[in-house]
Amino acid sequence: MLEEIRKIVLAQLPDQRAAAELDYDDDLWEWGITSIGNVGVVIAVEDTFGIEFPDDVLNRQTFSSIRSIGRAVLAVQGKPDEVVA
Amino acid sequence: VSVQERSGVRVDVSAADKVAEMAAAWADDVDRAARFPAEAIGAAADVGLLACARDPAVGVGQLARIATTLARSCGSTAMIWAMHQLQLACLVRHASTSAQLSALLSRIVADRMLIASVTSESGVGGDIRRSNAAVAGAGPHRSLVKQAPTVSYGAQAGAFLITARRHPDAAPADQVAVLVIRDQMTATASGTWDPMGMRGTCSPGFTIAAEFPADQVLAVPFADIAEQTMVPLAHILWSAVWLGLATEAFERARRSVRHRGSDGAPPQLAQADVLLTGIEAQLVDAIARYERASRDGAAFTTGLAVRLNALKLAASTTTIAIAGLAMELCGMAGYQERGEHSVARIVRDAYAGPLMVANHRLAEANAASLLVVKRG
Question: How many CB atoms lie within 10 A of CB B332?
């Protein structure tokens, strides 16, 4: 799952080095993702996993790293205890 | 429930009223000369109105109310007061854990200094969440140089809250805020200041070169300060200022129509009332949402950011529409620069609104966010 999210995130990152270097726990804002790029990630994650994030999940912290996005997906799917891998 | 009652605060409205009287007395002169409203800001300092945002008992609703009151007399005075409160609020909320910064803040308040914002920068396309300038230096000393295309009351401020990249190798969005006082820096004005409106804000460009102790860099990332305090409060307090301009334009038009004493009244008065009531309600709603989010300590959502951006878009553009209708209603007396039915200065001041963080940028951000924020 995290690899799928990583691909989605890479499509929104301007920095070419990200493809080789971006880790699951890296801060995406520090990698230079824009707020409009972040919206692109939300849409692609919702479409890919067939979910809708509730309004209170849509914040900077949730979308700060690939792993935190993975956790949010599992929470929406009703599987919050599953290990994000 | 009014904004004032909701915030449940001992409002010293009479103090704001006194400052507003002083602001009204000098507004024409300030506007004509494009000079700083020293009399009104001095009066605000005398009655303790400059330190409002430092008082935990003063709510956002009350700050907004004062901004609206001042703006009915002088848009520039109100905007300077609002921008200063905004900087003060950022420091109170995000710098009070540092003993050094707390001491500096106490000195700024005791010495009645204005705090100017140095967030804009040449070459970043108007995005305050990106910087070229960087904090440099090692050990206990730091320095930075920044070219800012606008610094309101930059020549009059005693302190400056400046954004820059965390260090020379940091990414453009990896920003910190730095509090610097005047004797730690040089500020060289660039260009001339002769704008259409908000002429008293004295907001030319400045090149800032500062040297300061390392502990004057706020520990909290600027991303958090911008998200939780600077951007929401800016949109709320600026909108409160524009609401004051719109209210004054409406009242002048209403009095003008009554003064003419014909039967009935032109429909534009009703149109202006619809618009005015809309932005009043939107401001109250945005303040309630913001205070709820601040109180709950929960993360600030994209949905809240959308509402606050929408407030700024609505208040800035609607104020221009209301001022335009008021000018039609007042006729030639409205078009005149002086007189009790003049709305000329209000119209000119109102046109600054859409430029203060460009509306097209906010509309683009909101349009994108609206693709994922559900209305339920």
Answer: 9
Tell me which of B80-94, B155-169, B254-268, B331-345 is least confident. B254-268
Residue from A31, A35, A52, A71 whose CB has the most chain B CBs within 10 Å, to mutate: A35
A80: which DSSP letter?
T
For A3-38, the pLDDT digits (tens) are 999 999 999 998 888 889 999 999 998 888 888 899
pLDDT at residue B140, rounded to an integer: 93
Of B171, B302, B368, the CB nearest to A58: B302
ipTM: 0.85
At CB < 8 Å, which residues of chain B contact A?
171-174, 223, 227, 298-303, 364-365, 368-369, 371-374, 376
**Contact between A60 and B372 using a beta-carbon 8 Å cutoff:** no
| Contact of B289 with B307, CB cutoff 8 Å | yes
Dist. CA A68–CA B252, nearest whole Å: 54
User: What is the DSSP-derived secondary structure letter of residue B148?
Assistant: E
* Separation CA B72–CA B63 (nearest Å): 15
- Residue B316's contacts (CB-CB under 8 Å, 6 or more residues apart) are B238, B239, B242, B350, B353, B354, B356, B359
Neighbour-count burial for A18-44, b at 16+ CB within 10 Å, e otherwise: beeebebebbbbbbbbbbebbbbbbeb
Report residue A84's pLDDT band, with 50, 70 and 90 as the boundaries. Answer: low
**Per the CB < 8 Å rule, is A35 touching B303?**
no
Identify the residue whose tokens are 């202006």: B272
* Secondary structure (3-state) at B89: helix
d(CA B30, CA B32): 6
Q: pTM to 2 decimals?
A: 0.93
Nearest to B229 by CA among B293, B307, B165: B293
Rounded Cα gap, residues A62 and A73, in angstroms? 10
